[in-house]
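Input record, target 12 of the design panel.
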């Protein structure tokens, strides 16, 4: 399924001189005007808008899970059903066991019960399915979506396939919300509150971790993000929003049966997200509204056109979805914002103008001390030996270069040193401790940061936000505080640190540009700034000068020289020999996965084995 990357929620600043209204403000004004007039309409239209609100709650979760985090789920309707059935069971006081009789009819206890049951079910399903990747993940969600649907119809205590009827109205203190126009405002208040909370989340440290899941998982793990935890967080939040919709559904319909909670409805929620814009929170409201209104209209008019009854709307929707994927892959919200000259949400993630307290810095080891030890490192891929018996040491306040021809195994070596890959044999020790069994996140927390041979960044996220991901482990504010916007002090410090590192590498003026708009050389500098934002004691740079102009290489060399003077250890892979030999302290030459020479730059340059194997000459 096509979707727009989450950065459309957090794009860069508009071009200089541009004065365009943000699309969120335009849509908010339009929604406010529409909602103000709805209670004055006939009851049928009030019911229609209530259904749109219920669907929008679920689709907000779909946008978070699928559009932002990049995990497609067909099973969100099952979580709506979980919340609905838990609510209906509590609301049916006569069906409760004696030990729960005190809670009968309480909407707040029903809400709490629905959320807790959904949290437990979603947690279990998440643990089972979120480790799947590719097409296996959506297939897994279809499997448990079907299973949960049939589970609802199996238990006679839940009414079987006939469901539970004659449920009480929602009672909030002295107010009984018995009619659609009475519960209307509660539904839409919860829709707007949920959208506001998710908006705050995506503009935070926790939100950047979730957004990095969509195409940047390896990079995020190397920056200290707990990737599985971020996946599970997005999954659980989407499930809780669906459960909240289920709670409201019971008190709106006063009846519950398994029919609305099948996989078909889960597919409809995905269609709504796609139509509105799967990478944009406002797409949830727009998509739900367009889908439900169009479905109602088509169900009314298509039988008249064809002269017989049938599910003709399903055929029409199938054609419409294909057209949307071709003509408006960013959804209606993205398409309208482009056509009308509106600007998608300008990033609020900006370095603060006023000075803020600097983040704590890591104490660097004593200059000259050994920070990284590699002994007998070997990596086999079946019959291919990428690295064989490599040993080297890296010291604090030193720049060590690993050079060799293409295919020599240099990047494979880097992957093992940064715990992105596991050696077949040998040992790596970091600050005197063996890293056997460590994850990329653990070694990042210990003080090792890296860049990649093939640039890994989030192209539709701003340069500043990409770099701030590097400071993930230097923050501690959690999910709840982020959603309530109580993390602003720490967020300002993280952003200020990212801006400082951008200034160091010469990209400060491009902080609010989309990262994908940078040249290759600038993207490599962004990666270095992101790694420095992690406050490492050891920096691994994989071809940092590739794509840089001469002046940029000189600035990079000056920066690395300053880092060496500060006591940082730098290990780099590079093909530009002029850049390497004028900068580094020692050189290790690797050919066909084996170390053939190690020494000072001048000695390595004149070594016959290097001239023959690496430079293609012989003495």
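The sequence produced for target 12 reads:
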């Amino acid at each position: 399924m096509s979707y727009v990357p989450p950065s459309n929620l957090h794009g860069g600043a508009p071009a200089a001189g541009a004065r365009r209204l943000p699309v969120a403000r335009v849509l908010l004004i339009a929604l406010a005007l529409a909602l103000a007039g709805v209670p004055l309409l006939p009851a049928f239209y009030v019911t229609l808008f209530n259904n749109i609100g219920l669907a929008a709650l679920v689709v907000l979760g779909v946008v978070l899970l699928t559009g932002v985090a990049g995990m497609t789920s067909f099973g969100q309707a099952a979580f709506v059903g979980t919340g609905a059935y838990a609510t209906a069971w509590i609301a049916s006081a006569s069906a409760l066991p004696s030990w729960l009789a005190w809670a009968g009819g309480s909407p707040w206890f029903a809400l709490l019960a629905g959320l807790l049951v959904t949290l437990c079910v979603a947690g279990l399903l998440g643990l089972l399915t979120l480790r799947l990747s590719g097409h296996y993940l959506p297939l897994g969600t279809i499997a448990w979506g079907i299973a949960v649907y049939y589970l609802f119809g199996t238990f006679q205590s839940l009414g079987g396939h006939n469901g539970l009827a004659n449920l009480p109205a929602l009672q909030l203190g002295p107010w009984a919300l018995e009619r659609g126009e009475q519960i209307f405002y509660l539904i839409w208040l919860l829709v707007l509150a949920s959208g506001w909370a998710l908006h705050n989340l995506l503009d935070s440290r926790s939100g950047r971790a979730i957004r990095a899941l969509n195409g940047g998982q390896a990079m995020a793990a190397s920056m200290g993000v707990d990737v599985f935890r971020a996946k599970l967080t997005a999954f659980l939040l989407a499930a809780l929003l669906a459960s909240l919709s289920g709670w409201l559904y019971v008190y709106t319909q006063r009846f519950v049966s398994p029919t609305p909670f099948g996989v078909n409805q889960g597919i409809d929620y995905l269609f709504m997200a796609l139509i509105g814009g799967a990478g944009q929170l406002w797409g949830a409201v727009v998509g739900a509204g367009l889908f439900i209104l169009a479905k109602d209209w088509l169900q009314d008019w298509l039988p008249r056109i064809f002269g017989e009854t049938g599910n003709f709307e399903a055929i029409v929707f199938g054609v419409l979805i294909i057209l949307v994927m071709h003509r408006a892959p960013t959804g209606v919200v993205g398409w309208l914002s482009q056509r009308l000259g509106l600007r998608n949400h300008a990033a609020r993630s900006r370095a603060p103008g006023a000075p803020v307290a600097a983040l704590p810095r890591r104490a660097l080891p004593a200059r000259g001390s050994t920070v990284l030890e590699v002994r007998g490192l070997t990596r086999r891929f079946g019959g291919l030996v990428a690295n064989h018996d490599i040993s080297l040491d890296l010291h604090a306040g030193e720049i060590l270069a690993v050079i060799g021809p293409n295919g020599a195994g240099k990047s494979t070596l880097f992957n093992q040193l940064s715990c992105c890959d596991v050696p077949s044999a040998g040992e790596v020790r970091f600050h005197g401790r063996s890293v056997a069994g460590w994850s990329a996140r653990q070694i990042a927390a210990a003080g090792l940061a890296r860049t990649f041979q093939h640039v890994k960044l989030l192209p539709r996220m701003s340069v500043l936000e990409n770099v701030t991901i590097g400071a993930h482990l230097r923050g501690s504010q959690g999910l709840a505080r982020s959603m309530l916007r109580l993390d602003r002090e720490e967020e300002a410090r993280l952003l200020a640190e990212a801006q400082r590192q951008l200034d160091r590498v010469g990209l400060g003026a491009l902080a609010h540009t989309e990262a994908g708009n940078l040249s290759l050389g600038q993207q490599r500098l962004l990666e270095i700034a992101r790694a420095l934002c992690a406050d490492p004691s050891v920096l691994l740079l994989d071809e940092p000068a590739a794509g840089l102009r001469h002046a940029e290489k000189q600035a990079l060399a000056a920066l690395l020289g300053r880092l060496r003077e500060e006591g940082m250890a730098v290990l780099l892979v590079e093909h530009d020999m002029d850049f390497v030999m004028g900068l580094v302290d020692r050189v290790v030459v690797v050919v066909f996965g084996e170390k053939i020479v190690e020494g000072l730059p001048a000695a390595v340059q004149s070594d016959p084995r290097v001239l023959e194997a690496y430079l293609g000459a012989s003495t």
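The chain has 23 helices and twelve strands.
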